[in-house]
Amino acid sequence: MTENQKLSGLRGLLNGSIREWNMKRLKKTGVFILLTPIVFIIFFIIAFILYEIFGMCINHLAARRQTHALQFNLESSIPDIEFINIYWQTGNTSGTGNHVDCLSSITFSTQMPESEIKSRLSECYQFDEWSCCISETDTGDYLFYLNTSAPFADNIEGH
After folding, report:
1. How crowded is residue 60: how many other Cβ atoms within 10 Å of its Cβ?
2. Residues 71/106, Cβ–Cβ less than 8 Å
3. At what angle do helices 114-121 and 3-77 cross, to 10 degrees?
4. To pair with 73 at 20 to 30 A between CA atoms, which of 11, 50, 92, 108?
5. Rounded Cα gap, residues 3 and 74, in angstroms
6. In the beta sheet, which residues pair with residue 52?
7. How many structural domains are present in the chain?
8. Torsion (CA) 12, 18, 24, 30 in degrees, nearest 10
């Protein structure tokens, strides 16, 4: 076997392995190009779901905090207060399906008249008979109703 024949065989071997190497690289590049959009779509779906879950948690914490603050303000302003029912809710309270509210509702009893209760709490709350109001129940107790917008008002929880 001559030197040229040896080199020719070596070149053929190298060309074949280079072609194999190029094909493997081309396959990997093709798979990467095809999978990249799928990975990004999955990433954005997961990020959206986590954002919504985070928003729901923050909204629930805000409603609980609002209710505790309301309870504290009532205790501070009314000396003979007796709590009957304390309730809070997060969600769409008006039924329109386009926002999230934080609702706090506390039923309590006291000998103090309604006008005096409103007077004492007017520093903390603006009574508008829609989102913040006190009303007397049939049993002579009082119901304090407070409805505010949630921090994540466009959360999926309101739709």
Report:
1. 17
2. yes
3. 130
4. 92
5. 103
6. none
7. 1
8. -120
Q: How confident is the model at residue 41 (pLDDT cuts 50, 70, 90)?
A: very high
Please give the residue that has the higher pLDDT: either 110 or 30. Answer: 110
**Domain membership of residue 120 as a residue range:** 3-158
Distance CA 25, CA 47 (A): 32
Cα gap 60→74, rounded to integer Å: 21
C-alpha 77/C-alpha 81 separation (Å) is 9
Amino acid occupying residue 23: M
Cβ-based burial of 101 (10 A; exposed 0-12, middle 13-18, buried ≥19): buried
Please give the pLDDT value at position 5. 56
Note the pLDDT tens digit of each residue in 108-146: 999 999 999 999 999 999 999 889 999 999 999 999 999
Q: Could you tell me where the DSSP H helices lie in 78-132?
A: 114-121
Which pTM was predicted? 0.77
Beta bridge partners of 147: 103
140 is written with which tokens? Answer: 């002579």
Contacts of residue 147, defined as CB under 8 A and 6 or more positions apart, other chains included, come to: 93, 101, 102, 103, 104, 131, 132
